[in-house]
Amino acid sequence: MNKQTAGIHHITAFVQNAQANVDFYAGVLGLRLVKKTINFDAPEVYHLYFGDQIGSPGTIITFFPWADSRKGKVGGGQVGITTYVVPAGTLDFWEERLKRHRIPVTQTTRFNERYLQFSDYDGLQLELVAREEGPASEWSFGGVPADKAIKGFGGAVLYSTAPAYTGNLLERVMGLQKVGQEGDYTRYRATGDLGNIIDVNVTPMAYGVGGAGTVHHIAWRAKDYEDHAQWRSHIEENGLSPTPIIDRQYFNAIYFREAGGILFEIATDPPGFARDEEADELGEKLMLPEWYEPNRSQIEANLSPIQVRVLEADK
């Protein structure tokens, strides 16, 4: 069976403070909070989703804000850097914006592309790159107009403890195309126009430590439920051990850990985030799966209030 993923569906990370998380991703980066729900396995913890105007696959970053969680260490077996793509010609706008919000920025070049690198309030490593490809976002918020808004993921930099095995998996199992090697990284490309460029370290990297400021897993796209079931069989046929299919309300998921230590998920594009809210009301209300609805009052009482707000630097 030959399979090709279109690219990244979403990336999920750990942070500590929920309001600070909202302030950074909605307030500074201008993303839309498209879903406010809970960790289904730990209902005292939010699960927050940020993306474009509807939370399209390839735009979604999600967080578990755990107030008392340990600080993590970015390293092998993780997504090392989450890459966002912005419209061509807007990097200067973003550099000035980040500096105005007192976020230190460094510049680097990989594969003849210029990147702005920075970290969120918990130390999660991020970068911006400008490209023509990929649909423009229709969302604007605070000081970020739609014509300069983040489109979604440009891709990711994977930190592997066994990069040869990770690269082989990306190419032979996930269906990405090897583009080439430059310096410390090998580049791979998926078929989609967002979340499609994956760089992998060449030299094996020591394991990181999970915790706030680190990525928990990276999810890849399956176009529908039939495709998703095929992916599960495909992963199993290639000697890996995927979980059973799990209903995550807004997509179905399977998980497996690859030889370089990184936790992979494959997630369905449908049904999306408008299954339980109107598109113009996404992220406004705490949404719970039906089995938690009887406990809504208790769950809401245990969660700290959060709000999407325009930050002082944009007023």
UniProtKB/TrEMBL annotation:
Gene3D superfamilies: 2,3-Dihydroxybiphenyl 1,2-Dioxygenase, domain 1. It comes from the Bacteria. Keywords: Dioxygenase, Oxidoreductase. GO terms for molecular function: dioxygenase activity. The keyword Ion transport does not apply. Residues 7-131, 152-269 form the VOC domain. The keyword Oxidoreductase applies. This is Ring-cleaving dioxygenase. It comes from Paenibacillus spongiae.
